[in-house]
Write a structure and sequence with these properties.
This protein is of the alpha/beta class. Helices cover about 35% and strands about 15% of the residues. Strands 2-1-3-4-5 form a 5-stranded parallel β-sheet, with helices on both faces. Strand 1, helix 1 and strand 2 form a beta-alpha-beta unit. The structure holds flavin mononucleotide.
């Protein structure tokens, strides 16, 4: 059976210029350009603060667009650093805007944490993804500690072990999408 080309939304949890996490997303997009279409979502810093008092029909256009992009994707890649032993506030805020919807439900996800250490954020995001019923398991996630040494300035993953681990996670993620 020939599978249709999958549309993947990639979300970097870092808003930093020259971010390692953004570089990893771009590297994945390049490595898999013959297999999947990766759209990089760059709006997390522009989303308003989540407020449960705002009814769904009154949310800002940026939130509507964000939800639509997730809904229309076949799968989502989240690549994030750890900030003070947690995921960055802007990423958490973006996720909170999806909680009243079912757009993440049964959506395949690849989860990459690239951070100095990153262990806590990696586990936390895994728990969040499971709670939102996303399709994620230990095969579709990878923790990259000290990413600065593993990615060069042009955004290539130069560390062989890291490259192998990232490919293994993305391959499993693509398999998930093809099974849907
Ligand atoms: C506010 C702040 C808090 C941080 N806290 C942690 C932390 O708790 N654990 C960790 O592993 N790294 C922490 N770091 C370091 C980041 O993981 C590191 O800078 C990472 O490369 C950022 O990802 P980026 O290159 O994609 O922006 C922190 C960085 C910032 C700016």
């Amino acid at each position: 059976m020939i599978n249709k080309r999958k549309k993947v939304l990639a979300i970097s949890g870092s808003t930093r210029i020259n971010s390692n996490n953004e570089a990893i997303v771009k590297a994945i997009s390049e490595i898999y350009k013959d297999k999947i279409d990766v759209i990089i979502y760059d709006g997390i810093a522009k989303l308003p603060h989540f407020n449960p008092n705002i009814e769904d029909n009154k949310v800002e256009q940026s939130v509507i667009d964000f939800r639509k992009q997730i809904d229309e994707s076949d799968g989502v890649i989240i690549c994030t650093p750890e900030y003070v032993f947690s995921i960055p506030g802007s990423l958490k805020n973006a996720i909170e805007w999806t909680v009243s919807t079912v757009i993440f439900s049964e959506k395949p996800v690849a989860l990459i944490t690239a951070s100095t250490s990153g262990e806590k954020a990696h586990e936390e995001l895994y728990l969040i993804m499971k709670t939102l019923s996303m399709k994620v398991n230990n095969d579709t996630r990878v923790l990259i500690s000290s990413p600065k040494k593993k990615i060069d300035r042009s955004g290539k993953i130069i560390d062989k072990k890291t490259l192998t681990e990232v490919k293994k996670a993305v391959d499993s993620f693509i398999k998930f999408m093809n099974e849907m």
